[in-house]
TrEMBL record:
Belongs to the major facilitator superfamily. Proton-dependent oligopeptide transporter (POT/PTR) (TC 2.A.17) family. It comes from Luteimonas salinisoli. Signal peptide: none annotated. It comes from the Bacteria. GO terms for cellular component: plasma membrane. This is Peptide MFS transporter. PROSITE patterns: MFS, PTR2_1, PTR2_2. It is found in: Cell membrane; Membrane. The chain crosses the membrane at residues 16-34, 54-75, 82-99, 105-123, 144-164, 170-194, 215-236, 256-281, 301-322, 328-354, 366-387, 393-413.
């Protein structure tokens, strides 16, 4: 594997990790900053109906997760990872600034999705090249990198959302574009600390595929899990869609003499990810030490069940306050329960795909994870169209049923998935980090 020359570390890790961390942080800041405003902008500024806005939101979010499948191929075969990151980031920044014109709204969305397709698969794939194969810091590098994703997600609604709500939508979109440019500046300026581009001859060889007898079964199990995750995301991705609408109309956001900006609630999820992840990882480590850690598919089933409970909470609150507005505390509690469930399913599922990916088919296997996100966001948009017809209580109950259904199906896959993990072994657990 190609690695960078020996360099002094920053914070106990290669300098390149800091560069990739900050680049990803600013990209996430731009993406989630724009997303925090999108539904409000469509319904309040462009005067779209709720159903149309939900469908557009779902199509856009789905496309963001579809383009990396094609962008990864372009990056690997023609552009190379560095040029793909720079070109993709520049196209995304242009898209954010195009949001300043209402007539260019759809072109702006297409530009962001297209640029994301080049950027998303090309940046995190450089993390592994910063380390020698047996470097003990290699595993923790991805945890550190993932923090960058959530720091960006935390800052996005607080900065872009606040600017958009208080000073005008275009100020929020402009801040997202500036964030993307800052990320590109960090990446280009720190290029000397990044691993060199690998040639095609240095592609990962199939060193662990001596016995391919179980390959077809492994791929079928992963496909089944991807379909379950797709169903789960139909409910989970409502946090940027119908949950955002409910935060605007169904929640009393008063805090003394202040009114909490509706976009601030979008910051709760990444903040809770940052706070809860160390606690959960420590818990799983203790379980592993006692030989009692659940298998990945079982963890994912529990996570889907947790998200179902979060939506049942909102269904009960909505039914009890049909004639008025619920306290913002209930929405905060919803995000707490939902985030705990999310940590059981999305990062765990990504790690499962990374471990079980056959070396000869790694890109195709990881693309299945993107496909699950693509289909799940599309499903979320379609389900969101029922919001205005069903009303909050019935809609949230429906989302609980969708998440619970995904949990039941994942539970049925626990035994074959556990068997596949045992066959692969722990040495294949090098994590691949993407926007999950």
């Amino acid at each position: 594997m190609s690695t960078t020359p020996a360099q002094r570390d920053w914070f106990g890790q290669p300098r390149g990790l800091t560069i990739l961390f900050l680049t990803q942080m600013w990209e996430i800041f731009s993406y989630y900053g724009m997303r925090a405003l999108l539904v409000y902008y469509m319904t309040k500024q462009l005067l779209m109906g709720q159903q149309q806005a939900s469908l557009v939101y779902g199509l856009y979010a789905a496309t963001v997760y579809f383009t990396p499948i094609l962008g990864g191929i372009v990056s690997d075969r023609w552009l190379g990872r560095r040029r793909a990151v720079i070109i993709g980031g520049a196209i995304m920044a242009i898209g954010h600034f195009l949001m300043a014109s209402e007539s260019l709204f759809y072109l702006a969305l297409a530009s962001i999705a297209l640029g994301n397709g080049l950027f998303l698969p090309s940046l995190p794939s450089q993390v592994d090249g910063l380390y020698q194969r047996r470097d003990p810091r290699r595993g923790s590098a991805y945890n550190i990198y993932y923090v960058g994703i959530n720091v960006g997600g935390l800052l996005a609604p607080l900065v872009c959302g606040t600017l958009g709500e208080l000073y005008g939508w275009h100020y929020g979109f402009g801040a997202a574009g500036i964030g993307m440019l800052l990320g590109l500046a960090v990446y280009v300026g720190g290029g000397r600390y990044l691993p060199p581009e690998a040639s095609r001859r240095e592609a990962v060889a199939a060193t662990d595929e001596a016995n391919d007898a179980g390959l077809a079964l492994r791929l079928r199990v992963l496909l089944a899990i991807a379909l379950c995750v797709m169903l789960f995301r139909g409910a989970y991705e409502q946090i940027g869609n119908t949950i955002a609408l409910w935060a605007d109309t169904g929640i009393d956001r008063s805090l003394g003499a202040l009114t909490i900006p509706m976009t601030w609630f979008q910051a709760l999820n990444p903040m809770l990810v940052i706070l809860l992840t160390p606690v959960l990882v420590a818990h799983w480590s203790r379980q592993a030490g006692r030989g009692r850690e659940p298998g990945s598919a079982r963890k994912m089933a529990l996570g889907a069940g947790g998200v179902a409970l979060a939506y049942l909470l909102l269904a009960a609150v909505s039914a009890g306050t049909a004639a008025g507005q619920a306290s913002w505390v209930w929405l905060a509690l919803f995000f707490l329960v939902l985030t705990m469930g999310e940590l059981f399913i999305l990062p765990v599922g990504l790690g499962l795909f990374a471990r079980l990916a056959p070396a000869k088919h790694r890109a195709t296997t990881v693309a299945a994870w993107f496909f699950a996100a693509f289909g799940g966001n599309l499903l979320a948009g379609l389900l969101g169209m029922a919001w205005s017809r069903l009303g909050p209580a019935a809609f949230f109950a429906l989302m609980a049923a969708v998440a619970a259904g995904a949990g039941v199906l994942l539970g049925l896959l626990d035994r074959p998935a556990r068997r596949m993990e045992a066959e692969v072994g722990p040495d294949r657990a090098a994590m691949t980090t993407v926007r999950i």
